Amino acid sequence: MTPNLTLAPENLAHVSVPEGTAAVSSREAGIAAGADILQVRNLSKIFGQKPERALDMMRQGRGRNEIFELTGNMVAVDDVSLSVRAGEIFVIMGLSGSGKSTLVRLLNRLIEPTSGSVILEGRDIAPMSTIELREVRRQKMSMVFQSFALLPNRSVLDNIAYGLEVSGQKKAERYETARAALQRVGLGSYEKLLPSELSGGMQQRVGLARALAVNPSVLLMDEAFSALDPLIRFEMQNELLRLQKEEQRTIVFISHDIEEAIKIGGRIGIMKDGRLIQVGTPAELIQTPADDYVRDFFRNVDVSRFLTASSLMEKPQKGVFACDVGASAERYLTDMIDSNVDCGYVCDEAGRFVGCVTLDRLHKAGNRTVRDALHPELHAVQAEADLHELASVALSREYDVPVVDGDGKLAGVVSCRTILRQVLERRAA
Amino acid sequence: MNSSSSIFGKFAEDLVNFLFEHFRGGFDAFSSVLGAFVKLFEDGLAAVPFIAMLVILMTLALWRRGVAFAAFVGVALYVINYMGLWAQTVSTLALVIAATFFSLVIGVPMGIWGARNRRVEVVLRSLLDFMQTMPAFVYLIPAVILFGLGRVPAVIATIVFAMPPVVRLTTLGIKQVREELLEAGRAFGSTDAQLLWKIQLPNALPSIMAGVNQTIMMALSMVVVASMIGAGGLGEYVLSGIQRLDIGIGFEGGLGVVLLAIVLDRLTESFGVKSKKKPRKSAKSLKQGASRAAQT
Predict the structure, then answer these.
(1) ipTM score of the complex?
(2) What CATH number has the domain bearing residue A379?
(3) How far apart are CA B223 and CA B204, in angstroms?
(4) Domains annotated on chain B, with CATH
(5) Is residue A173 scored above 90 in pLDDT?
(6) Which of A423, B11, B80, B287 has the fewest CB atoms within 10 Å, i.e. is most exposed?
(7) Rounded to two decimals, what is the model's pTM?
(8) Per the CB < 8 Å rule, is B188 touching A163?
(9) Cα separations (Å) of B243 from B162, B228, B250?
(10) Does the CB of A167 have a partner CB in chain B at under 8 Å?
């Protein structure tokens, strides 16, 4: 037996498994470099007079309805803790009345929190004086509103420059910044118009430009696209993703639309009755929902694109060959027969996936090299490949589908059986 | 001197007498300042020749409302001049402008205060109700006692009578500014003063202008009444018509007031909306809203 050949579940371990699990959150992998920029700790909001008693009851774990009946106070946000990472879009999802709009207003204290802290770049906003808070709002946090909230008496440009104007920036300077922001949202030539002369989608672009003009550390978007027509909403979501690609900004995005949430959200926090029930990437929420409430959100959504190869793959038990592709094919024939597999996965010495071999092709290659024996059609799929892609690949072959990670290393295989089962399950849902 | 029998009448009487006895110097000083102001307006306007005034007002009318209104202004002023009432009209106009000026200087800040403070609003509202429903003539009595006869008490009685609409409509206008605009203003770090100047006042402007318009109209009607204590002008002419039971004089004076009222109303109304192109509807509906609000 040749020394440079190993039949390799154990060898595979260092190659694939760590990356394999990490790849579940591959979507945020690029951004996760950012540390937590915004931390929310035990944040609560109780509406009504004298919330202390209600706060105590809430801490004892009584329900919001009971508290409302006994004290007349409404628990809007109930002990929410979360962290937002720099450069990610964090979506807060929930039905109306779940407290999501209150939560986002607690972050910049448009609504005063009853208890808890909001720590932005290491500084707690909750106990700040009015003056400090004003500086935070001028420089660190800006907001886009569901109703656009543009000032009707001001031109588009003056609306965008508003944040800079109130912080005392000179006219020429703030107009320059505002014009740049207007260019970025694609409305360069509209600066002199009044908001009422624009369509809804355009108005919200202005709203977005106004928020971007102050160059905030965190951008709060409160149901920013909910008031728009479906087509325009779609367009604005793409616009946001495009902007996000150009310049990674930390965004807290409020939405009641799960499709919107999974489209733009790196991570999603699901709220119900003022509580944050679960936080995770769309894939995590789909695969391991915390309860039926979370599961129900995804009921009518096509989630197949979140079922990625990396989440469905298994470690190949046998048939992985780490070898020199220049070596003679014949040398591996017996190993292949011994391991009793139809299809072997060939990796080079660095662990990178090279291709697949079948018994038939090894045999035919005879004393030519392994490279010559590689099957010309059996390619691997990327870890991010979704169920659709997997299914179409599986359709054209009789063997399991190998999956490679970002480095080209073999991460695992997805059996055709798994793919079929997932397709059937999605159909059933 | 005490002739009223109930305690209410006595109270009012005692109050005015008290003020008269103890603050006479103050009232005299105030009176001379106000008198100088009114004289300034009157002399200023009187110094402008009829033809110049005609051109100015017609140009203004053309700019704000268009050709038809400019023509109307021309005819109206010509008719007034033809009746020989130009001097009286200028005098009345000066009083109206002076009274309106002071009404706004006092009324707009009061309206803003009322919009920002619930308690102030409650107090203001009852005070304004009182000021508006008290028959206009009643103000003439204390005004005469405290300030004597002439232009000054006339202006003061007019201010008291004409101020309520602008206070009310300022409060109303500011309170009607959409909450989301204030929220946006706060979210971008506005101070309270910035909210007021950059968001509340600009957005309340149509309502405030409707209040200004109403105040001017009420001032005009009061100035006629105030002719009884020596306000002069068109009112005096009408009054002499009444005293002599002379239909012709009464009608001429009345016609002068009406023409002046229409010119002032249409001109000030046009400032409540942005441009002359798309104004009428909104200005009108605002005015209706205004008179309704002023009645409540």
Answers:
(1) 0.73
(2) 3.10.580.10
(3) 28
(4) 7-295 (1.10.3720.10)
(5) yes
(6) B11
(7) 0.74
(8) yes
(9) 26, 11, 10
(10) yes
